[in-house]
Amino acid sequence: MLTRTKLTDANVKCLKPPVSGNVVTWDTVVIGLGARVTAAGHRALVLNYRTRAGLQRRYTIGSFPDWSVVGAREEARRLKRLIDAGGDPLAGIEAKRGAPTVEDLIERFIAEHLPRKRSKTQRDYRRMLELHIRPALGREKVAAITWSNIDALHRKITKAGSPVAANRVMTVVGKMFALAVRWHMRPDNPAKGIELNVEHKRRRYPTPDELRRLTIALDQHPDQQAADIFRLCLYTGCRSGEAMAARFDAIDLDSGVWTKPGSTTKQQTTHSAPLSAPARELLGVLRRRTNSEWVFPSAASATGYRVSIRKNWRAICKAAGIIGLRAHDLRHGFASQLVSTGASLPLIGALLGHSNPTTTSRYAHLFDDPQREAVERVGKLLTGGGRR
User: Fold this and answer.
1) Average pLDDT over residues 189-195
2) Crossing angle, helix 224-236 and helix 329-340, to 10 degrees?
3) Of 271 and 185, more confident
4) Domain assignment of residue 384, yes or no
5) What is the mean pLDDT of the segment spanning 243-265?
6) Residue 194 or 93, more confident
7) 206 band by pLDDT with thresholds 50, 70 and 90
8) CB within 8 A of 168, min separation 6: which ones?
9) Average pLDDT value over all residues in the chain
10) Which residue would you say has higher pLDDT here, 363 or 31?
11) Which whole-number Å values give the CA distances from 76 to 89, 175, 300, 383, in the listed order?
12) With 0-12 CB in 10 A as exposed, 13-18 as middle and 19+ as buried, what is 269?
């Protein structure tokens, strides 16, 4: 039988817990309001109601004595007015409980967006997702993330001594929430307006002496496949990711042309590059060594080709006594050698596969010495070899 009484704070406090489960004592003042007590002695004020669709619902107003009976009656009356107007107080709560979390967004981002990216980009994005984004935001609801949450993540990574990495994480977060808007998970992108850290473009190139020591270290490195990847980068100016994903069917050794598919280039466009004699010789040797479709095959990789050379580069630089040189700087070194031979910026951009002239302009300062030499030669000619 239903137990009904005029609820007061005093009699709710005195309700006896049941042996198991819970029992509700119903109020005689506001129909549907009740005091629930569990076997553990926890007390709460609840409201039973029926929606216009005929669904029977029980809504927990709050714990007792945090909520008094008087306060619960007022809240129950407010809720009943909402219900009479066609509302459903529990529906909003259930919707929030079922709302997608950032964890859900990350999984969809990985499944639907990452496959469109280059393999190296996929690896970089996954690393940032697992190292920074998932631990910081994963449990939160997508709709609950604010600009402050994103800014706090950026500042945390920056304070840890990785300002550039913090900016790269913001790139991933920004794209992820832009897709969340497109996927109707939220109406706006909370990553908009984050002030990124100032980045200074690197101007690090291997010096002639470093190149000499690097050549010796490459010859002595125990993993010659990794050494050959670096040699190909050095001979062609390609990115390490392009080298590792190279296929023999994209390389014509007779004509000396490497046609890189858009799936492996940063610009995602096909790029044809001429191969120098050392590059052709290296690729010819590699071709004779294997029957694989890949220039640098790997049975340990799901892709079928080599995907990691970071440890090798550190070991090679250590052996060569070189500090502060990245594998990507071999590409810059290739560009600097082109400058020394008199190549123009447009030609350098074409050989490196730049789609934007602004990207190539970073090498403009390398022309300072050739330009000065040219000016001096003209000056000598105009002054008769220095005679007044």
Assistant:
1) 95
2) 40
3) 185
4) no
5) 85
6) 194
7) confident
8) 124, 128
9) 85
10) 31
11) 11, 44, 64, 100
12) exposed
The residue segments making up the domain with residue 63 are 3-98
**What phi, psi does 298 have (nearest 5°)?**
-150, 120
Considering the chain, what percentage of its residues have pLDDT values greater than 90? 56
- Cα dihedral sign, 333-334-339-344: negative
Spatial neighbors of 242 by CB under 8 A, at least 6 apart, are 260, 264, 265
Over residues 134-156, mean pLDDT = 95
- Using CB atoms within 10 A of its CB, is residue 180 exposed (0-12), middle (13-18) or buried (19+)? buried
Are 143 and 230 in the same domain?
no
Query: Judging by DSSP bridges, how do beta strands 56-63 and 271-274 pair with one another?
Result: unpaired
In a domain, 386, yes or no: no
Token pair of 83, please? 């219900």
CB atoms inside a 10 Å sphere around CB 139: 10
Whether residue 66 is contained in a domain is answered as yes
Cα distance between residue 231 and residue 78, in whole Å: 75
Highest-confidence segment of 183-197, 226-240, 321-335: 183-197
What is the spatial distance between Cα 157 and Cα 222, in angstroms, rounded to a whole number? 35
Looking up tokens 């119903």, which residue turns up?
26
290-320 per-position pLDDT tens digit: 999 999 999 888 889 999 899 999 999 999 9
**CA-based nearest residue to 36, from 84, 74, 70, 72:** 72
Choose between 222 and 205: higher pLDDT.
222
Is 240 part of a structural domain of the chain? Answer: yes
Beta-bridge partners for 274:
257
Instruction: Name the packing angle between helices 163-182 and 119-128 (round to 10°).
Output: 100
Residue for token pair 């619902």: 57
Please tell me whether residues 219 and 315 are part of one structural domain: yes
Length, in residues, of the chain: 388
Quick: pLDDT tens for 329-374.
888 767 666 655 555 555 555 555 545 555 444 554 554 455 555 5
Rounded to whole angstroms, the Cα distance separating 50 from 52 reads: 7
pLDDT reported for residue 262:
65
| CATH number where 258 lies | 1.10.443.10
Domain count for the chain:
3
* Residue 308 φ/ψ, nearest 5 degrees: -140, 125
